[in-house]
Amino acid sequence: MPRNVLITGGSSGVGLATVTRFARNGDNVWFTYHSRRDVAESVASDLRTTDGARIRAFEFRQGERDSHDALLAALPGPVDVLVNNAAVGTRSIDRYIQDPRDRDEAFLRINSIGPLWLIRRLLPGMLERGYGKIVNICSVGGGVAQFPGFDVVDGMSKAALAYLTRHLAAETAHSPVDVMAVCPGAVDTPMLRESTLDRLAPQARLDFEANLPKGRLIRPEEIAELVWWLCGNGSGVLHGAVVDASMGLGVRPGLLAEHSAESDRVCGGRPGGR
């Protein structure tokens, strides 16, 4: 039977790849976007045409109470699978918030409190119906390891999301709902390109990628495939797991410090992007 899947931040990067993967499986996929309604509606239209899946896009400002209420009121049915993917990155947040205190608050509100609010509203229904999957998309930076020189509050927001995953898993240990987190490394997404890759000279970018585990960036589709599998029937043994999906960066975070001084200077984002 098709499941009702809600994926936040689904119009680009890992979110788009995840929306596409669930649509291919025949699930009903509802995804959110923050801006660019035209892009989101184009994504939904293309997937409906290509896969025959029931896809809908909803505008959503994560961490804003009114927007949370509006989204949940607009959803056409109960949610069986929740993928908390929407997040803000260093460069995207710097475009519209200048005050450092407001910036810190926004990081935590969007990346940590927003997912918490969604879970609080949707988890009771999953428990009542006897089925549910929750996957939180964190980052290797904060969720698994620490990277000096990267944005501390960004890392804090991901550490909080990893803790939320473990805490909820402990509370639902005897329930039919599975809660897990995925911590990607350097994924080739618009967020990583904006924060890091586009700021590198051509040779510096080649050096950056060569020094990553396996000498390459992670593809969004690789993370999407993992998320899809975690929401399947065989993933129950990973209830409560915070999965290091960084291709080895989490166990050797010093790789990002093993670059030239120029590469270190311009890497002002976080080692993971959606």
Automatic annotation (TrEMBL):
Spell out the InterPro entries in the cross-references. NAD(P)-bd_dom_sf, SDR, SDR_fam
Q: Name one Pfam family in it.
A: adh_short
Q: Which Gene3D superfamilies match?
A: NAD(P)-binding Rossmann-like Domain
| Family indicated by similarity | Belongs to the short-chain dehydrogenases/reductases (SDR) family.
Q: What is this protein called?
A: Short-chain dehydrogenase/reductase SDR
Which species?
Candidatus Protofrankia datiscae
